[in-house]
């Protein structure tokens, strides 16, 4: 059973599909190549894989951050200005344009990673050569890594969280004010407000998970590039902190569907129906609910039926010879009851 078009093509669902696509890119094209760095002593892939991996990492990060910001802005408009937000006929097209614009803008911001990432030769204190994948080329100088890190921290983390927090503060203020007038409103309006609150809580859960997952890695990167003698003070503590930060940033791409499952009742319902179908089918078999669309339901067949009846003349002479019988054709419509066998035949009515 497919979701109704009006429900699947809503603004939150469009952004959630875009968010899922960005997370899928991260899981498939970035996590396998970056995670292997912590298991081998030298980067085993070439420059092409290095550039592609760094590009997809920044692309996915931009899609996640900007989509969450767009979702927060949409929830703000849906709660504070519901009429102007939903009445417009161009709302669906605007949502598609915003989603595509997020992908294009994220790709533009990720271009430096695709252009400048390389695999330089490095040497240990004992003279052994190894390779790393880095987005900072030497010809751009020592200032470029600091500028690049600071810009990414502001654009990908600090500024979106400030905007999202502002949207939610304004939403909370509006809900507190409107709650005083809510009991006197119609029941339909109350259900709409409750539905919008549920979606707002879902977006807030995503934003909270993002803020927690990306905080450690941003702390490490800022310390590494702006801390005094960070390379000299790098020890097992910072190394472990760095690994935890990378793992949490990658977990963010995997935990969103899990959070959506527990937060959204609609997503949980259709996820159980289409993914855990064996479990729901088993539960459905225990119930005895009558469904007029089910194959076990009663069906009426109105197919025409033609019968040929042989007639003889009444009162005709019976001299051993039979006249040719007259043929009468009857066309009738009958109701046929068809059903599968039930444990209790008397239950079929």
UniProtKB/TrEMBL annotation:
TM spans (from-to): 16-39, 90-115, 153-171, 199-223, 243-263
Record's subcellular location: Cell membrane
GO cellular component, one term: plasma membrane
Gene3D superfamilies on file: Rhodopsin 7-helix transmembrane proteins
Keywords, in A-Z order: Cell membrane, Disulfide bond, G-protein coupled receptor, Glycoprotein, Membrane, Receptor, Transducer, Transmembrane, Transmembrane helix
Top-level taxon in the UniProt lineage: Eukaryota
InterPro entries reported in the protein's UniProt record: Bombsn_rcpt-like, GPCR_Rhodpsn, GPCR_Rhodpsn_7TM
GO molecular function list: neuropeptide receptor activity
Bilayer topology term: Multi-pass membrane protein
Similarity comment text for this entry: Belongs to the G-protein coupled receptor 1 family.
The protein, known as: Putative bombesin receptor subtype-3
Native source organism of the sequence: Penaeus vannamei (Whiteleg shrimp)
